[in-house]
Amino acid sequence: xxxxxxxxxxxxxxxxxxxxxxxxxxxxxxxxxxxxxxxxxxxxxxxxxxxxxxxxxxxxxxxxxxxxxxxxxxxxxxxxxxxxxxxxxxxxxxxxxxxxxxxxxxxxxxxxxxxxxxxxxxxxxxxxxxxxxxxxxxxxxxxxxxxxxxxxxxxxxxxxxxxxxxxxxxxxxxxxxxxxxxxxxxxxxxxxxxxxxxxxxxxxxxxxxxxxxxxxxxxxxxxxxxxxxxxxxxxxxxxxxxxxxxxxxxxxxxxxxxxxxxxxxxxxxxxxxxxxxxxxxxxxxxxxxxxxxxxxxxxxxxxxxx
Amino acid sequence: xxxxxxxxxxxxxxxxxxxxxxxxxxxxxxxxxxxxxxxxxxxxxxxxxxxxxxxxxxxxxxxxxxxxxxxxxxxxxxxxxxxxxxxxxxxxxxxxxxxxxxxxxxxxxxxxxxxxxxxxxxxxxxxxxxxxxxxxxxxxxxxxxxxxxxxxxxxxxxxxxxxxxxxxxxxxxxxxxxxxxxxxxxxxxxxxxxxxxxxxxxxxxxxxxxxxxxxxxxxxxxxxxxxxxxxxxxxxxxx
Lengths: 306, 239
Fold this sequence. Notes:
The complex is a heterodimer of chains A (306) and B (239). Chain A has 306 residues and is α/β, with parallel strands linked by helices. Chain A is built from nine helices and 16 strands. In chain A, the strands form four sheets. An eight-stranded parallel beta barrel of chain A has the order 3-4-7-8-9-10-15-16, surrounded by six helices. Chain A is globular and about 50 Å long. The model of chain A has no long low-confidence stretch (mean pLDDT 95). Chain B is built from five helices and 14 strands. In chain B, the strands form four sheets. Chain B has a seven-stranded mixed β-sheet with strand order 9-8-7-6-10-11-14, sandwiched between helices. In chain B, strands 2-1-5 form a three-stranded antiparallel β-sheet, with no helix packed on it. In chain B, strands 3-4 form a two-stranded antiparallel sheet. The longest helix of chain B is centred in the last third of the chain and has 14 residues, at 175-188.
């Protein structure tokens, strides 16, 4: 690599580079360790953790779409206890930056996950999942109602001094309203966007492609929507750190999100197609900075000329 | 690439990396390695855009291949004799297994099912591979245009009823066929090892798309815990 300074910061959290693994696409940070070591990334956002293990949704859970895919995994996860005991020690030993994605069906569930994690070293922050489109209760309800969201964020805020991110739903009727509610509740940063609700149909079987009928759309198909939402929230709340995600496949996509106002990004679906995608993206980002004489990646944040 | 175990698979990108969006999982049908390169034998049946892509691709086109992935058949401790049961495009891993077992002292009887005689894949070649292990090929077609008429699992069952003494059943094919093999295994007290196939986005265990239900209410990932699973590891009723 050249002399480009890839470091960035999301609020008070300093990162060695702006590329994080998105929740639900990188397991618990150790699943692809030979192909993409978690410590080489800006950070790892874990699969959404609930107080107890969840079996998730019935099959089929995924469907391929034009330039993307739908998923309805239903937040299958091993539970916070197993994560802290079985996964966290190695993540800690490797020096990975770990953001725990927190999921619950009630405010109490969110608090239980955070309280368990507070007992552990090596967790650098939390990302509240209030935007999963694939569960029958909880999740997205909080993300769609600014009053509920503000209360939930506040109670989580009171439970931790660590960085607290809220992952916003693109399906919410009032994006700026929910963004403001999360910040008013005490969020340090906002991550956006989660997947967009969609569906796929098998015309021969005349049935939905997913057992749950609806799923979350991800991949390059949603990048323009994500970029627009990051830009809108940045314009409405310029002082609030943003973590951008949605369809990032290349280093230039990262630059696009940074210019729109994100301080860091997450890469998700690209990892399914190319397990080393995040490392390739970092190389491309470095190359972009080199070629444009950009000495510090953080100089790109919000630098869009309009 | 390390030598794949029969039953393992590779994830193959469509050349250019654009559409189809996902890589496709293909079971390895054969493998060879030279000093600095290796070759993979894959059999692709056209069933949709992901597989149709390869029909029009010029020879010499490069692409990205990730693998070998998953758990294959247990070749390090081969059974004394095995019935290999293939349905349709489930043939490749079993053909590869039989080739690898030639010389290991394992007799492989190869049961191959297809809809019609035209859809049987290379029956002469299959017969040779089975014969090299001391076994036989039993072709079956739904319409009776070649081999025995009816389901391939019916042909296996008739022989079990007549006292065939295989030590294991290995199978690859559509889920209803695999379920029938699992039930035969249970009925006759034989381990049934099944190479399963499900929709996969990653092939590496992180997308959680390819899971199959287990009797205890949990899941196994076909890509990571499989694709070769024991018949009694799967809850067939819930699948």
